[in-house]
Specification:
This protein is of the alpha+beta class. It is 30% helix and 28% strand.
Length: 431
């Protein structure tokens, strides 16, 4: 049997979907996991602990392992593992995207520089050191702007600023976040803050598959909630897009040009783009598939999942029609309404009973601390819906979310408690 080396970070929603796809294709699986968080391997997979922060040492371990268990493909499940996957594939002599291209996709500033050099519309961007005094930088910034950490993804640390005081506050907030996550000590990107022009207009996402540099579009998602700041919490994705056919062609062409500019040649890409009167602007393009549990919205010919298509491509298997199933589908990433300790989520059965709702997954456990954006890195869970039209799917997602009630215990600091002389209580918030 062919063997897959699956790179699994300490925290991801993607493992189960890829393992299911590997079982469907009758692949042997070795899960490469971070040494700092070694997880028990499922019965269908071996376990290989690696230091994800040291590609050279990881490559030595993988080469040694492959002498006894030959590896036919390496797949990273998210941004964090995409660059390491390129390193390991190169070490094993397997077809892969170049390390430079995947690294450029991972580095927000490098990405924007390359795209601009190749004529791809991107927001004007510049980087500053987290050690800079933001008060001295205001004259160099155009407003409105977006302040973001190059080392993070999923809207974590992304803040809009409309003027000097907002910029100073946002810069300091992002710098504090990078320090709290320990990124300042471990990466050059963790010592930088990106500041770019805010691009107005609706945002869309494109899911695609590259083969020898040619892009095949798998889906274009609309994001019906306006993403205008001050934070950029993504909630609803719906496909097929309601953009015009001509605009969808333009979106696809922009994503293909962006992938080519970075040098990406093989495998999945996920692009985030904005559309306005000036055209299509590329905000992000990543050398991986859509994150979270969002891939469950996509089904292809013969009931193939997105992960199965990715693995078929990686193993050079025949790809059936890439046409998506008829009808519409969507996902809502359940936002965290406010910080605190999750106690209970009520109304789950009522939410599941909404016509069109296919799945509700609460991925945070009672007792876990909830951290909303821009500091947060996780969602409360996911709602998935299907229906005859994008409109019906959006309606189902919003109605199901309305029926959920989140019981969150507000965390009260000692200073606040002393000042207000109140007890910590449980607040019921309905969204």
């Amino acid at each position: 049997m062919s063997r897959l080396l699956l790179l699994v970070p300490a925290s991801t929603y993607r493992t189960e979907a890829f393992l299911d796809a590997a079982r469907a294709l009758r692949l042997d699986v070795t899960m490469a996991v971070e040494r700092i968080a070694v997880l028990p391997a499922p019965p269908s997979a071996d376990l290989l602990p690696l230091d994800f922060s040291d590609p050279v040492e990881a490559a030595h371990r993988v080469i040694s392992y492959a002498r006894r268990h030959p590896i036919d493909a390496v797949v990273g499940v998210d941004d964090q593992t995409a660059v390491l996957a390129a390193h390991l594939a190169e070490a094993l002599g397997l077809p892969h995207n170049s390390i430079a291209s995947v690294s450029a996709a991972r580095n927000k500033y490098r990405m924007r520089t390359l795209l601009r050099e190749h004529g791809v519309p991107v927001p004007h961007a510049q980087t500053f050191s987290i050690m800079d005094d933001p008060a001295t930088l205001v004259e160099q910034v155009r407003f409105p702007c977006v302040v973001k950490p190059p080392a993070l993804s999923a809207s974590c640390g992304v803040i809009r600023a409309n003027n000097g005081p907002e910029f100073i506050a946002a810069f300091r907030r992002v710098a504090a976040l990078l320090h709290s996550l320990g990124l300042v000590q471990h990466s050059e990107a963790g010592q930088q803050i990106l500041v770019e022009d805010f691009v107005p207009g609706p945002e869309v996402a494109l899911e695609g598959l590259l083969t020898a540099g040619a892009l095949r579009v798998l889906a274009i998602f609309d994001k019906p909630d306006p993403l205008e700041g001050p934070f950029f919490e993504e909630t609803i994705y719906i496909t097929p897009s309601r953009q015009s056919r001509d605009m969808q062609h333009e979106i696809a062409a922009s994503a293909a040009k962006a992938a080519s500019a970075l040098g990406l040649q093989e495998g999945p890409i996920h692009a985030e783009l904005r559309v306005n009167a000036q055209g299509v602007w590329v905000i992000e393009i990543a050398a991986r598939s859509i994150g979270g549990r969002c891939s469950r919205t996509l089904r292809f010919a013969a009931e193939l999942s997105l992960e199965e298509l990715i693995l078929r491509h990686a193993f050079h298997m025949d790809l059936p029609s890439l046409d998506r199933e008829r009808g519409a589908a969507g996902v809502m990433m359940l936002p965290i309404p406010h910080g605190g300790v999750l106690r209970e989520v009520k109304g789950q059965e009522e939410a599941r009973g909404v016509p069109g709702i296919e799945e509700l997954a609460i991925t945070m456990e009672p007792g876990q601390v909830l951290v909303p954006l821009p500091e947060g890195t996780r969602y409360l869970g996911f709602l998935i819906a299907r229906g005859p039209t994008p409109e019906s799917v959006e309606t189902a997602l919003r109605e199901a979310h309305r029926r959920l009630e989140f019981l969150i215990e507000a965390r009260i600091t000692q200073q606040t408690e002393a000042r207000n002389r109140i007890d910590t209580g449980v607040r019921s918030i309905r969204f």
